[in-house]
């Protein structure tokens, strides 16, 4: 099941970033070798009790832009309505209720999305509680008083948020159908690809479970198997500011990737792979999704016998953090190698859910350890006792050792390579958890 998406909406200076940082805190996943992705804090993974969700800061409004604040707020609220399962609307008790709050509240109410109304900067309950009641007038439910700065009221707020999460998606009849997100920069050919796959019988299933999503879902049949393609190119939003557009496209990509089993990252062969491609692919990597790199417009590339190797090498170089990613050279225009794309997607789905028996794993492990001695530090040598697979999507392994400090990143990488040599796992990242055992 995909994680719910929670979006924060509110005027400038009400404390959105402060709340975002308080919630993301230590829990923000830092993947050091993924370029760019985690540095801009547009989204974060948050866990409260036994529930996890993706938190999005729709932010990006310039506080000094005066009378255009309202139109920007509407834009922001629309992004939240389009992409989120729950919207957290933040107001500021010290500034009081203002007109634009009321207008945005109207918009949120009409969307029928679950909204949690939060009144921030209630640093002293005694002093401000009477003012909090005023926010009932927004007509979007009971205001929850918090102080993001003092971190009070946050638990109650999180309780209200998780209460609004949809029931387990098991009731969704499409749940067994693999979901494929098609992501990439503008103009790489995402829409062309989806349209080609759909051909004549385009079936739009965007209102699954009654939610409106900004990504358009389309069901595709291939050799008696069904797939749901999530098209992030579907709707284009006319934004004036470049940063705003970029933020919006990151949000769209993150929410589509979140719902997907496999992510097809489309890149433009005529342009070559870029840092922006690496950033987009990094979102899939970070979330442990299956990844296929579709090198599109292959028809338009002038080729000799070395062209494909040159492209492959360059892509491997720029996407060095995901050597496992599968590459397919396609043309959305001519349909070239689309069968290969489906075969690759199928293989990646299989690898994402592959389970290896503990006995077999430990044979690989003892062979690996015999071939290359584990590292030691100040006379103490790393001992690896045992390894077992504890999960899938992505395949997750626990390695039990005598001392975690001794388990270097490079040695984990070495074991990962041995596991890959034996079982492939093409197209999926692998997760290794190191545990100490006395
Ligand atoms: P954003 O523009 O909505 O992201 O707002 P920020 O998070 O940047 O906060 C705006 C200002 O409000 C900053 O000076 C924060 O320190 C302050 N602030 C945020 N939360 C609180 C709070 O709970 N109490 C008080 N008194 N100030 C806060
Ligand atoms: P999107 O923004 O990623 O959805 O990209 P589009 O699907 O709108 O395609 C952008 C441009 O690239 C359009 O002019 C397409 O006709 C062109 N295009 C897409 N796929 C191919 C392809 O496989 N070969 C060639 N030569 N052009 C393509």
From TrEMBL:
Keywords: GTP-binding, Nucleotide-binding, Repeat, Ribosome biogenesis. Transmembrane segments: none annotated. It comes from the Bacteria. It holds the Pfam family KH_dom-like. SMART domains: AAA (SM00382). Residues 4-169, 178-353 form the EngA-type G domain. The keyword Glycoprotein does not apply. GTP 1 binds at residues 10-17, 57-61, 120-123. GTP 2 binds at residues 184-191, 231-235, 296-299. The keyword GTP-binding applies. GTPase that plays an essential role in the late steps of ribosome biogenesis. Belongs to the TRAFAC class TrmE-Era-EngA-EngB-Septin-like GTPase superfamily. EngA (Der) GTPase family. Associates with the 50S ribosomal subunit. This is GTPase Der. It comes from Blautia intestinalis.
């Amino acid at each position: 099941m995909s994680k719910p998406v929670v979006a924060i909406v509110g005027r400038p200076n009400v404390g959105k970033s402060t709340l975002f940082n308080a919630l993301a805190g230590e829990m923000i996943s830092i993947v050091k070798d993924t370029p760019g992705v985690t540095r801009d804090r547009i989204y974060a993974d948050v866990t409260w009790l036994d529930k996890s969700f993706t938190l999005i800061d729709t932010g990006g409004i310039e506080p000094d832009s005066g009378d255009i604040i309202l139109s920007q707020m509407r834009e922001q609220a629309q992004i939240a309505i389009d992409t989120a399962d729950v919207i957290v609307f933040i107001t500021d008790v010290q500034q009081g209720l203002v007109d634009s709050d009321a207008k945005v509240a109207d918009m949120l109410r009409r969307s029928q999305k679950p909204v949690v109304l939060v009144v921030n900067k209630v640093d002293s309950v005694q002093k401000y509680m009477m003012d909090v009641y005023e926010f009932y007038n927004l007509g979007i439910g009971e205001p929850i008083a918090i102080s993001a700065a003092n971190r009070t009221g946050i638990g109650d707020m999180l309780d209200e948020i998780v209460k609004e999460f949809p029931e387990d998606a098991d009731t969704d009849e499409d749940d067994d159908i693999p979901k494929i997100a098609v992501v990439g920069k503008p103009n790489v050919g995402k829409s062309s690809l989806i349209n080609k796959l759909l051909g004549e019988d385009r079936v739009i299933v965007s209102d699954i479970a009654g939610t409106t999503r900004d990504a358009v879902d389309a069901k595709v049949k291939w050799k008696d198997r069904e797939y749901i393609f999530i098209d992030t190119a579907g709707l284009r939003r006319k934004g004036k500011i470049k940063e705003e557009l970029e933020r919006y496209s990151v949000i769209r990509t993150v929410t589509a990737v979140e719902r997907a089993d496999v992510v097809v990252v489309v890149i433009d062969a005529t342009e070559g792979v870029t840092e922006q491609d690496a950033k987009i692919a990094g979102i899939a990597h970070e979330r442990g999704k299956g990844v296929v790199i579709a090198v599109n417009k292959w028809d338009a590339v002038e080729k000799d016998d070395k062209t494909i190797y040159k492209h492959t090498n360059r892509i491997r170089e720029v996407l060095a953090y995901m050597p496992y990613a599968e590459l397919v050279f396609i043309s959305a225009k001519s349909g070239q190698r689309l069968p290969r794309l489906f075969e690759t997607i199928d293989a990646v789905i299989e690898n994402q859910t592959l389970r290896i028996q503990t006995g077999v794993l430990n044979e690989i492990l003892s062979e690996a350890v015999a071939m290359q001695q584990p590292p030691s530090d100040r006379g103490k040598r790393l001992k690896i006792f045992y390894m077992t697979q504890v999960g899938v999507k992505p395949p997750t392994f626990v390695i039990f050792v005598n001392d975690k400090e001794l388990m270097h990143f490079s040695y984990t990488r070495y074991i990962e390579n041995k596991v890959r040599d034996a079982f492939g796992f093409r197209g999926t990242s692998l997760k290794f958890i190191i545990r100490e055992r006395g």
